[in-house]
């Protein structure tokens, strides 16, 4: 008898834990009054869709590979579908971890950590990026229910080094220079002027 109760208890605990993985709720998903996004990480030291660096080799242009930079989902990068010099290139956004994550695609990350990142790349709505980056309009969501996604550059373990394992986050636009002041790894606007797409951006 005891065994049966125990397994029922464990099963319900398991269900609770599974439900608690994602903390953002509603449509669009929100947490603490702020819009949510999903995140992943990638390692690609090439210049990306904002042309940050004249060379494809990160030794020639290190900050786009070492810094806190990200690829924004296609609909945020350029809603008209452009894959080069989207209007958000060189803009910065603040991510704050919710403590949640997408089950099977990440792990618990301590809640309330904020970092400022610069958009220097596009996560296109094409294979193999369809499951995270295929949002089509303001209210369209990816396979995991988020209308915004950021793929974070981890070429030098700058993301995993903070203990971030594809965390669910809230996001808001932020000032790059302020981010640079808080954490030297966020590129500032002066650094963005080195990018080929600098003329398309007006902060
Ligand atoms: C997007 O695709 C690239 C390969 O082209 C891969 O490296 C990256 O991890 C993918 N990101 C997402 C969020 O799907």
TrEMBL record:
Keyword field: Signal
Known Gene3D superfamilies for this protein?
RlpA-like domain
Q: Does the keyword Chloroplast apply?
A: no
**Would you indicate the residue range of the signal peptide?**
1-20
SUPFAM superfamilies reported in the protein's UniProt record: Barwin-like endoglucanases
Q: Which domain of life is it from?
A: Eukaryota
Q: Which CDD domains match?
A: DPBB_GH45_endoglucanase (cd22278)
Q: Tell me what this protein is called.
A: Cellulase
Q: Which organism is it from?
A: Dreissena polymorpha (Zebra mussel)
